[in-house]
Design a protein that fits this description.
By secondary structure, the protein is mostly helical. The chain has 14 helices and no strands. The protein has helices spanning about 1-30, 30-60, 65-95, 95-115, 125-145, 150-165, 175-210, 215-225, 230-235, 240-245, 250-280, 285-315, 325-330, 335-340. α2 crosses α12.
């Protein structure tokens, strides 16, 4: 009888939690115009807050001046990043037709090579279709990145208010302290690993002589903030340019294989050694979070998926009824079983003899 009541309680609780998540999903989707810039601003403040605290507490700057210096640094970084991103995307989109024209020569060499090998195939229809699709592919891939910069102005406004309202002398403990430490560590680690990835890819593509090597390195740096999917996209991006530019199939293969090897080395071996300990998230949880937040918020949601999910887990671990979900997100199945199937004391029987 007691077990039946516990099962019913868990069923009701699970149903209510599911309905709450569905309702929360609708709220997050329909308010993404404001929530995405706000969440991004929160993470920017996580990064710049140590500078603000040091200026006030260590260097004894007046608080308004410290806020102004921190905000100026944020604005410079945002403008610089936007400038680089705009230049990179414009360079690729504007030269899409050039790559399409170069593809004619490459396809002609391919047809001639097949004829030498004794293979007579009319590839004119396929090559013509591919030629038309190169500009469409490049513009459809990089065009949305240009529109994604429009909400950064609202992000800047949120950063201003969050920095102005921050109290450098406040001691952050408990849930807020844990969130602050883990998220800042994740962002710092991701920036360093993305920077290393971008520099290595730039060096590889430059040695191969690929055009726009710096552009692809910058995009690799940015896309590395998207787990799994970003690395795959950045690895395949140079392929159309390599096919249109290089005569050698070996050079084309190296333009994809070597950056892919860098992504695998850093993403699958180096990052997990540090990132997994910091965020305490199972790889399956990261993939599911990437799909969920990407569905709700698009590319910005994929960028914010891991830190937002880590923050959610920290909150879950503070609520008894949600603690099993927090353990599940970390992959602690043994602890999950212990928390779900907690032992129930046997009821006392009236008239029991001592």
């Amino acid at each position: 009888m007691v077990n039946t009541k516990n099962d019913n309680l868990w069923l009701i609780t699970g149903s209510l939690v599911f309905l709450a998540f569905v309702a929360l999903g609708f709220v997050l989707y329909f308010t993404k115009v404001f929530l995405v810039p706000f969440v991004l601003a929160v993470f920017i403040v996580f990064l710049v807050s140590p500078l603000l605290d040091s200026l006030v507490l260590k260097w004894k700057f007046p608080r308004p001046i410290a806020v102004a210096i921190s905000l100026l640094l944020v604005l410079v970084v945002i403008v610089f990043a936007l400038g680089l991103l705009t230049t990179a995307v414009s360079s690729i989109v504007n030269t899409a037709n050039q790559y399409s024209d170069n593809f004619d020569a490459t396809s002609a060499r391919m047809i001639e090579w097949l004829r030498v090998k004794g293979i007579n195939i009319d590839l004119s229809t396929y090559t013509s279709e591919l030629k038309q699709q190169i500009p469409v592919f490049l513009k459809s891939t990089f065009g949305p990145l240009m529109s994604a910069t429009s909400w950064l102005s609202l992000t800047t406004i949120f950063v201003i208010f969050l920095l102005a309202g921050r109290n450098p002398g406040a001691v952050r403990q408990g849930v807020l302290g844990e969130i602050d430490g883990q998220v800042r560590y994740y962002i710092y680690l991701k920036v360093i690993s993305s920077l290393i990835t971008g520099l290595l890819i730039w060096a590889i593509l430059s040695v191969l002589g690929l055009q726009l090597a710096g552009v692809f390195a910058l995009l690799a740096f940015l896309l590395n903030f998207i787990p799994a999917v970003g690395s795959l996209i950045s690895t395949m991006l140079p392929l159309p340019v390599a096919v249109a530019q290089f005569d050698s199939s070996a050079a084309i293969a190296l333009a994809v294989i070597l950056p892919g090897a860098v992504q695998v080395l850093i993403g699958n071996f180096l990052e997990p050694k540090f990132q997994g300990q910091a965020m305490k998230l199972h790889p399956v949880t990261i993939v599911l979070a990437l799909s969920f937040w990407g569905m709700l918020w698009g590319v910005p949601g994929m960028l914010l998926a891991v830190p937002v999910t880590a923050m959610t887990r920290i909150v879950f671990m503070q609520v008894d009824i949600l603690m099993p979900l927090g353990e599940l997100m970390a992959g602690n199945i043994s602890q999950l079983n212990g928390s779900v199937a907690a032992p129930v004391s046997s009821p006392k029987v009236s008239g029991e003899t001592k």
